Amino acid sequence: MTLAAKLAPHLPLLRRYARALTGTQRDGDTYVRAALEAIVSAPEDFPRDVDERLALYRVFHAIWSSSNIDVDSEEPAASNFERAAHERLAAITPLSRQALLLTAMEGFSHEDVGYLIDLDPDGVSGLVKEAMEEISRQTRTRVLIIEDEPIIGMDLDSIVRDLGHDVTGIAVTRDEAVALAIDTEPGLVLADIQLADDSSGIDAVKDILGRFSVPVIFITAFPERLLTGERPEPTFLITKPFQRSTVSAAIAQALFFNSTAAMR
C-alpha cells in the first residue's frame, strides 16, 4: 500500500482538527495542504517510527509551528498570512488549547500529544487542566440543542448546564429548531443532522444562519455527509458516540472563535 493510500483515511480527521485549531475552514485547509505538500516533496522525512496518523499530525504541527507556508494567491490577504498565523497562534490558540483538542477531540493519549508538541506527558496533563479551567471561565451563553434522540439530548443538556450555560430548548425537527432559534436567539447551537421526522439538521442550521449569525457544532453519527470537501464545512464536528470532554472542548473552542458553520 502506498503512503498516500495509508494517509487518506486520516485526512478528514486532520482537516477537522485544523479547522478547530485555526477557526476557519480556509485557514485549516491551507495548513493541511502545506503539510501534504511537505510530505510529497520529502517522503524520506516522513516519520516511520510511529503509526501513520500520528506521523501525519506530527508533520502538520511542524508546519503549524513554523507557519512557513506558500499561500495560494487567490486566498484573501495572502501576503499577510504568515504574520497573521503567528498572531493567531499567540493570541487565539495557546498550547493548552492544542493539547485539549488533541486529547479530547482527536483522542490521542497524553504520550502521543507530547510527541506532537514536544512535551512530556505531565506537561500535557498540565496544559489540558489549564484549558479546562479556561472552559469554566467562558462567558455564559444560551444553547439550542437540535437532537431527536431523547437520551442524547438529555446528555447534551447536562453537559451544557454543567459548563455554566443555559439551554433554550431541545428541538427534534427542523421546523421546531428554527422556531426555537427565532424565539430565543441562542448564542450557540448543537445540531444533529438526521432528525425525528426525517428532516435535516443541516437544513435547520441553514435556516437559522439565514436569520442571524451563531456558532454551530454538529454532533452526528454520519460525519461523512459533512466532510466531503465539496462545499464549505462546519468548523466544529463531533462524531457519535462522543465523550463529554469532547463536547466540552468543542463548546469552548466554538465560543472562543465565535465561528459559524457556513453551510451554503
UniProtKB/TrEMBL annotation:
SUPFAM superfamilies, per database record: CheY-like
Xref: InterPro entries: CheY-like_superfamily, PhyR_sigma2, PhyR_sigma4, Sig_resp-reg_PhyR, Sig_transdc_resp-reg_receiver
Domain Response regulatory: 142-255
Keywords on record: Phosphoprotein
SMART domains in the record: REC
4-aspartylphosphate modification, residue list: D192
NCBIfam families: PRK09191.1
Name assigned to this protein: Response regulator
Gene symbol of the encoding locus: phyR
